[in-house]
Sequence to fold (77 residues):
Amino acid sequence: MASIIVRGLDDRVKQQLAAQAKENGRSMEAEVRDILTQAARFPHIGMALLNVAQDVGGVGELPIQTRDDVARVASFE
Fold:
């Protein structure tokens, strides 16, 4: 099994991971392993959509409509 070392991790991230691991009743190492496994198993939805779009011709020619509407103040009357 492979091992990795993560350098430069913000202390707040480590604290959040430790709290999350405690909440889930496992070690921080097991928590990080689960997070990485889940992240690697499921593709990023944006990238998945982009890949599908590229398979059917890309998105470069999609028209982008300009917004010319003006913001209004909400009225509660």
